[in-house]
Amino acid sequence: MTRTSMNTWKRLAVATLTVLATVFWQGCQGCNPVTLKTIDLPPSNFKTGTSGFLGSKGYCLSSGNPPPTSFSPGANQIIVGFDDFFRPGTEPFPCDDIRAAIFRGGVAFDVSQFDSVVSANLLFDTASSIARSGGETTGQIPAKSVATTIGVGTQPFSSGMPDDNEASLPSVPSIDVSVSGQVRDWVSKTRPNFGFIIWGPRGPADPSNPPEDNDAQVSAYTNFKLRIVYNPAQNPRAPQ
Questions:
Q1: Which of helix, strand or coil describes residue 34?
Q2: Is the CB of residue 47 less than 8 Å from the CB of residue 85?
């Protein structure tokens, strides 16, 4: 390309950009700026589901009597984690008493007032954490979260709290995790709203291979809120 051709091309490009800018400015005269709104929703429901195994295993002539778990959520809390109990039987035909309790928490929010959302974040705090290992129980200050995973519920809250669409959680006292995609699915009714499921650090207990220890890791969670950013003009049923 010659220098003259290059200069001609540059002049045409500048002229084109000038015309486009003028058209855009004229078209936007009188446009109202978009003002986004942020709202913190409280939970509409929350529950702790307990699953696992309680009984005896081995050469057993009768059912054993392992103690039930002593962990339970406080007011406006859920708990997450596990609580094991193991009492070995007598050789050569041992009948072991076993408890493997798994705690999963569910928290739900009513998002029916929204037609679209810009973003959504789930926020909550670790109220307390307890760990037991080698017969010694300790608390943590500040509390360290034992939950490792957040998912989306696949059915109404139950003892097992099944979920999918999982993501990892940080082990920090105050948790703030993006859930925009999950909330958009509920708002658009792509999938039913069965809330969030919080769980870890273990998966479901296997009755055929239960843990043979007396360990526990449990965290209690509170102060749940769903922070939604939205355009009021696109959500006439939401607060304006």
A1: coil
A2: no
